[in-house]
Design brief:
This protein has two domains: about 70 residues, Ubiquitin-like (UB roll) (Roll), CATH 3.10.20.30; about 70 residues, [2Fe-2S]-binding domain (DNA polymerase, domain 1, Orthogonal Bundle), CATH 1.10.150. Helix content is about 35%, strand content about 15%. It is globular and about 50 Å long. It has six helices and five strands; from the N terminus they run E-E-H-E-E-E-H-H-H-H-H. The chain is an alpha+beta fold and about 160 residues long. This is Isoquinoline 1-oxidoreductase alpha subunit. InterPro entries: 2Fe-2S-bd (IPR002888), 2Fe-2S-bd_dom_sf (IPR036884), 2Fe-2S_ferredoxin-like_sf (IPR036010), 2Fe-2S_ferredoxin-type (IPR001041), 2Fe2S_fd_BS (IPR006058), Beta-grasp_dom_sf (IPR012675), Diverse_Oxidoreductases (IPR051452).
């Protein structure tokens, strides 16, 4: 049995400890917001927060994360009030939406650890791939999310 906490709920999986976290979340816990993109750790669609760090659920085995705290897109903010979710919606950033949960999770970790990220910080901190090409608006949305998180007024306010 592998035990850790997912979205503030203790879980235990009676699965092979080498099972990727992605499949435990999706198949055993029905948390399907974490997406399968490439399975090789290159696209970032499966990004989750593990103990405060953005990590790829396709590359983490459940045995390796025993005792940790995992937050998925479902646990970030059930009412979509997280600053990253607010900024992504305000920027009309979502196109197909497939990469968005992973980007939201990566961005949430970034703005928690860097309250005022530069464009370069964002490009380095969000390596996720978006096939729709939202990158030009992504930087501004993440900077806006950081502003919201800091409690700064909107530009022009």
């Amino acid at each position: 049995m592998t035990r850790f906490t997912v979205n503030n709920q203790p879980v235990q999986y009676d699965m092979d400890p080498q099972t990727p976290l992605l499949w435990a979340l999706r198949d055993a816990s029905n948390l399907t917001g974490t997406k399968y993109g490439c399975g090789t750790g290159d696209c970032g669609a499966c990004t989750v927060d593990i103990d405060g760090a953005a990590r790829l659920a396709c590359r983490e085995t459940i045995g390796a994360i025993e005792g940790t705290f995992v937050t998925t897109i479902e646990g970030l903010s059930p009412d979509r009030s997280h600053p990253v979710q607010q900024a992504f919606l305000a920027a009309n950033l979502v196109q197909c939406g497939y990469c968005i949960p992973g980007m939201v999770m990566a961005a949430s970790v970034l703005i928690r650890t860097n309250r005022n990220p530069s464009e370069e910080d964002i490009r380095q901190g969000i390596p996720n791939i978006c096939r729709c090409g939202i990158y030009p608006r992504l930087v501004a949305a993440i900077q806006d999310a950081a502003r919201i998180a800091r409690g700064d007024p909107a530009d022009g306010a």
